[in-house]
Amino acid sequence: MRLRGLLSRLSWVAAVRAGGVIVLCAVAAGRRPWWPPDALWLVALLAAGFGSRVFLRHLAPFLALFVLYFVLSGLADDLNPVVNYLPMVRFDLWLAGGGELPTRWLQSHLWDGSLRWYDFGLYLLYTAHFVVPLVVAVLIWKRRPRLYWTYVGAIMGLSFAAFVTYVLFPAAPPWLASDHRLIPPIHRISHDIWQAVGIADPDLLYSRLSPNLVAAVPSLHASYPLLILVFLVRAFGARRVWWVAAYPAALWIGIVYMGEHYVFDIVAGVAYTLAACVLAFWTADLVSRRRDAVPPAGGPGRAVEGPGRAAREAGPYEPPIRDGPAGEGASFAERALPLLPPRASRVAGGAGRGG
Per the database record, which ranges form the Inositolphosphotransferase Aur1/Ipt1 domain (predicted)? Predict the structure, then answer.
């Protein structure tokens, strides 16, 4: 009977998961909403994992917050119709000493009119925008669980800080400024890649896949790789994961080369990332200190020192000595007291006195 009940429950959970994925695919097939492949994949994973306790407890909040961010970012450009085109251009020209824009310079050296292997590689990194943070989340959850919620807090704090900036400062990417002839012509390499995989009208597809075309400052495509590098170094040490530094470096070059972001967007993304990491680590440290604090033994108003120092000053623990067998005339608390560790026994004793 137990086996039959377990199989029935598993069948029900599998049916719910399959139904969620089917509904999601039906919505996608109806072209509402038009989300990028990585975001749609996250939603499908969220639906497929429904019913798993471990999934719902750890990964579902991460995915749900990502989906919420994606929905909100699509509304940002509707809240503020004023689009900024030139501040980022001025910064990049100043950085280049008044010469060419970095995007123009990179394309003059790397683009010859036909797609190369690195074009596909860089765009693959670009489209894995949401997938890589999820993979790293699973890795940290499995290998360094104490760091998991700090990672989630940092990446979601970064994302929603970026959303607020998108509302206050809508910023056009280089390709859009080029389309409006505000900067010298820039070739949009992503168009060639879409056409190479069989998409006849990349403009129509991109307009539907991108919920917000003016969410460029800060660049989360620059921010997420740096945040991932910071947490992997924190989790495993720089000697073991130094090679991961190639990921943000390649993506930073790629988004400027393909005309998706200015250098200004990357600088802003780096600043936002460092602020989010510092805040997340500080918050985690504060929570850890409060969690490790020892309840006061002498009453609610008395200050208590840390557990390590208190244990050293208390010396080795010796159970109380009683006359006669422990069970004669002793209460349950008195019989259990010698079995508790020193800190627990002191707390228990204080509680028994009503202090």
Answer: 101-278
pLDDT digits (tens, 9 = 90+) for 158-192: 988 998 899 899 999 999 999 999 999 999 898 88
Query: Which tokens go with 212?
Result: 């917000």
d(CA 286, CA 279): 10
- 78 and 201, same domain (yes or no): yes
In this structure, are 288 and 313 located in the same domain? no
Separation in Å, CA 343 to CA 187, 316, 338: 68, 12, 12
Q: What pairs with residue 171 in β-bridges?
A: 84, 215
Closest among 158, 166, 174, 144 to 276, alpha carbons compared: 158
- In three-state secondary structure terms, 184 is coil
pLDDT in tens, 95-131: 998 888 999 999 999 998 889 999 999 999 998 877 8
Segment 68-80, tens digit of pLDDT: 666 666 666 567 7
H/E stretch holding 92 reads helix 87-95
Q: What percent of the chain is modeled with pLDDT above 90? A: 36
Based on the domain organization, do 198 and 325 belong to the same domain? no
Half-sphere exposure of 188 (CA within 13 A, CB side): 15
Assigned token pair, 5: 């009940």
Per DSSP, the residues of 279-298 read HHHHHHHHHHHHHHPPPPSS
Q: What are the CA-CA distances from residue 149 to residues 146, 229, 337, 347 (Å)?
A: 7, 16, 36, 30
pLDDT (0 to 100) of residue 29: 44
Using DSSP, state whether 171 is helix, strand or coil.
strand
Distance separating alpha carbons of residues 205 and 202, to the nearest angstrom:
5
Q: In the structure, what pLDDT confidence band is assigned to residue 82 with cuts at 50, 70 and 90?
A: confident
Give residue 259's region: left, alpha or beta (phi > 0; psi -120 to 50).
left
pLDDT of residue 203: 60
Could you tell me if residue 299 is inside a domain?
A: no
The answer to the question of residue 78 being in a domain is yes
| Separation of first and last alpha carbons in the chain | 52
Identify whether residues 117 and 173 lie together within a single domain. yes
